[in-house]
Batch of 2 targets.
Target 1
Amino acid sequence: MIRLTTENTQNAIAKCKQLKPRVKFIKERMFAVQSSNNSNVYHVSLDVKDGERFGKCECRASECGLVCYHLIAGATANIYRQTLKLAK
Ligand SMILES: [Zn+2]
């Protein structure tokens, strides 16, 4: 899994805001993100260890250790879900 930091997520956040990919909830900490330039769907899994965020995506960028916009889309959806849970 890739550790998500403010630095390594910056570009992906910008790209995610621009592309606004569709995100589908699969299960706890797992999301399916629709690619914006083809029909691929990437599964994103997320984790939190010792207060740090980690994530993994199925796409090639993620395999190379880069934070992709799919990962950000999944992480954003995850934070949103947790916020909803807290609001209950
Ligand atoms: Zn990806």
Target 2
Amino acid sequence: MNTRYSFFRAFTQRALFSLAVSIVLLTASALACDQQSDSGDASGSAYWHSQKEWEPEDIDALEVVHLDLEPPPFVHEHEQTAPEEPRLNKVRMVISEEEIEVEPGVFVWAMTFEGSVPGPMIVVHEGDYVELTLVNPAGNTLLHNIDFHASVGALGGGALTEVSPGEEVVLRFRAVKPGVFIYHCAPGGEMVPWHVVHGMNGAIMVLPRDCIKDPGGNRIEYDRAYYVGEQDFYIPKDEDGNYKRYDRPIDGFADDLEAMRGLIPTHIVFNGAVGALTGDNAMTANVGENVLVIHSQANRVSYPHLIGGHGDYVWERGGFDNPPQLGLETWEIAAGSAGASIHTFRQPGLYAYLSHNLIEAFLLGAAAHFQVEGEWNNDLMEQIQPPG
Ligand SMILES: [Cu+2]
């Protein structure tokens, strides 16, 4: 009897204990979900995998922020963590058509947002509104517009932003997806790729309101941010093999389309020109800093690689709702997208950051440099015996 009683009592106790544990765990998980819903805090297993619904805001009551854009590779001043309430980010971009020198003696009619290839990085927070004034000055010759991959709505705003020379337009959209996204001109038909491969693209970063996070949901603060915009050019050549030059953008249109149909770029460059981010133009960092790099390619695939380092955290497809991948050697930027990576340099020196299609990097121009200052660590690398 005693044995049976003990067994029954032990069984009952164990069942009650299991039940209690289950209730505690369920309550804890419900609390964790609640916390996540309230704050977007991704602690625990928590990454969002569904559409978040945003209540419409009283636009007139929102705090207004005027974004002061910077030419790439620099990124305008911004907060990594935003206040709880969404804000209205006002930004003005002027379109310019201007001849740029892609390498010494080789020119292309660039179509640009704000005079740079790529256009400037825009930084806002998830749930914020972006109010863009797009200006097409009277001196330009072509109709332009803008398609924001970060936006939700037909053509990414393309149909609502068509501006002829001498016009300007204002578009407001809500940034509901956190991540890095490209924007580009898309005036229809053959004009879409023609404008894009003449430099008319850029990127926007939509940060989670409470900062980007590692796979465990811990916030990652970055010390510096750089924007590397990759651009493929298809510059026509004459019968002697010399690059052609035109008086106006439209004068090269037929030759350009023929060169583009071959799908073989004559140049693939970072920030508009061969060497735009190398040597004296190298991006800088210090050993131990978290360096955020946003890399965009509006028209073709790219394979970022940091020679002598790694992608410590990589959002290969750019979406901050996804946990980053860790410690990658090379990753991929899909055509028509931007990706983000964080690098913590462990050693000083000159690092090359390139597309690891090495033909594109070394022969066509897709390479940049980081000049890193700090203390050398012999534990990580040391030349034991010099060549001899
Ligand atoms: Cu355009």
